[in-house]
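re: ur question from yesterday

yeah so i grabbed the chain u mentioned. its 296 aa long if i counted rite. heres the sequnce exactly as i have it in my notes:
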Amino acid sequence: MGSTLAVALMAKGYPFASIIDRDGKRAVALARAVKCGKAFTEIRDIDRGTELVFITVSDSQIREVASQLASSKKLKFGKLTALHCSGVHSAAVLRPLARKGTAVASLHPVQTFPRDKKPEKLRAKLRGIYYGLDGTELGIKNALRLVADLDGNALIIPANMKPLYHVACVFASSYMAMFLKTIAQIAGKIKMEAPWTEVFGPLMTTSMENAINDASGLSLTGPIMRKDMATLDLHLGAISASAPYLLPLYTIGGIEIARTLKESGHLADSDLHEIIKKFRTHIKSNPSDKPSKVKK
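ran it thru and got these structure tokens back, copy pasting raw so excuse formatting
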């Protein structure tokens, strides 16, 4: 993430005073990518003319990095803006710098950055995306300017809502990818002649469009919507026989579908309770940690 943002900002004319990374090779590589002549492995070596700091370390290290920066004898804190890019933490983790008069903010891009792709290739993925922001008044003001320069959109997130906001991000990225992998695994067991992406791609695309256009539950289809308990039994039996490790995922997803349909008036309380009871009974009788028996 940090490398992609750096390359994008460099392309917009932002000069880099210094690059700091515990890994010297990474520091040198990024410094070259953004045409910066100073690459270091220690925070104490930060350029004294620094006016904007991007902290792109892991979430658990942000507070420590902020404390180290706050102890610097070089920086002019009243003229400094410090940003971190965590989705789960608010700007409060930069309190050591804020106490010194630094404008602080969190600037989290709502996007994923595969580690095996070069920053130059990922830069286009930043165009038009949203950035979750929070911080001090001046920190947010400066962050808004950066978002505009990156051709992005800003979304102010209340500090106490940052963890929940990040949950939504995880559902939209890793959980979505996990569901796609599940489809691929099941398709592999079926041994279909056509690629699973071609078979299920149109269904996924249309379902996504329908869900975005109508979140009321009307876009949902399938046996739960139809209250088809016999088909649910067939599903659960097939999963138990071929991929028992997917039972928890299928049932949890099914319960959430049923809850959504109940809230939108498409299922009665009795229907919801019957579905939940069926799923729970099946899970108890088919624990997913049991080794599956394969008939030869």
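noticed a couple things. The chain has two domains: 2-157, 166-285. also Residues 162-190 form the longest helix (29 residues).
anyway ttyl
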